């Protein structure tokens, strides 16, 4: 009777493993929204816990069959063969579910990381847009133009590492068919805004550099003119002090 019960327990265990495999490993999942992906991750975590909890039952079966084999070798030998098959299938199921759970957790981590990089780069784009707007309607002062140019250039020196991460993470998920529509839409919007603002910022940078160069040249010419006028003023004052007659002066002084 004990052998019959153990045989029944082995059959039930095998049936449960078959159902678990169908439910957790053979279903085709499509992750088209973050909610679907998150639910799949949580479901697979529960599946892993459920499967691992059966380890106690498997151990009890193993111990009972070993005990029976010592008392009734003939019955125990037959059950030991079935037990080995169940143990092998159980270990395979555990490994596959662990693997799928790990994969889904990695995918979810990849999605969260992508969102974090997008948030960082969006904040940078907002800052860049603000700096570009600050270059409009500047006062015609050399210091104001120079400060605006330096401020804009400091933002443009932003490294490209984050954008590389965004591209690679997004492509990895899209290639796996994970959230591909949502990610494609996000990346398209981000890239379009990045290209637009980058080109605008570089154009403003070039314009400010040209404006600054013109203002410096004008400032230099005014300084030279002022120095020439000051020298001429000193010469005329000297002539007047010495009561020099105008017709005795050089032509330019006249």
TrEMBL record:
Keyword Coiled coil assigned: yes
Pfam families registered for this protein in UniProt: Spectrin
Keyword set, alphabetical order: Coiled coil
Coiled coil, from the record: 3-64, 208-242
Coiled coil listed as a keyword: yes
Transmembrane segments: none
Protein's organism: Aegotheles bennettii
Source organism, top-level taxon: Eukaryota
Protein name: UTRO protein
């Amino acid at each position: 009777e004990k052998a019959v019960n153990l045989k029944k327990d082995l059959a039930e265990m095998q049936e449960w493993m078959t159902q678990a495999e169908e439910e957790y490993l053979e279903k085709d999942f499509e992750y088209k929204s973050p909610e679907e992906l998150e639910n799949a991750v949580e479901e697979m975590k529960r599946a892993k816990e459920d499967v691992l909890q059966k380890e106690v039952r498997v151990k009890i079966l193993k111990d009972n069959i070993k005990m029976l084999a010592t008392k009734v070798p003939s019955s125990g030998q037959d059950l030991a063969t079935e037990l080995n098959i169940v143990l092998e299938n159980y270990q395979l199921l555990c490994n596959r579910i662990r693997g799928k759970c790990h994969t889904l957790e990695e995918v979810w981590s990849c999605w969260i990381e992508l969102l974090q990089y997008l948030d960082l780069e969006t904040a940078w784009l907002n800052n860049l847009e603000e700096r570009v707007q600050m270059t409009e309607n500047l006062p015609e002062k050399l210091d104001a133009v120079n400060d605006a140019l330096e401020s804009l250039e400091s933002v443009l020196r932003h490294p490209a590492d984050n954008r590389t991460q965004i591209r690679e993470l997004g492509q990895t998920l899209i290639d796996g068919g994970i959230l591909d529509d949502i990610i494609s839409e996000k990346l398209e919007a981000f890239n379009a805004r990045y290209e637009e603002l980058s080109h605008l910022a570089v154009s403003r940078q070039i314009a400010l550099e040209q404006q600054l160069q013109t203002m410096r040249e004008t400032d230099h010419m005014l300084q030279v003119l002022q120095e020439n006028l000051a020298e001429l003023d000193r010469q005329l004052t000297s002539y007047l002090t010495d009561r020099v007659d105008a017709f005795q002066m050089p032509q330019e002084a006249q």
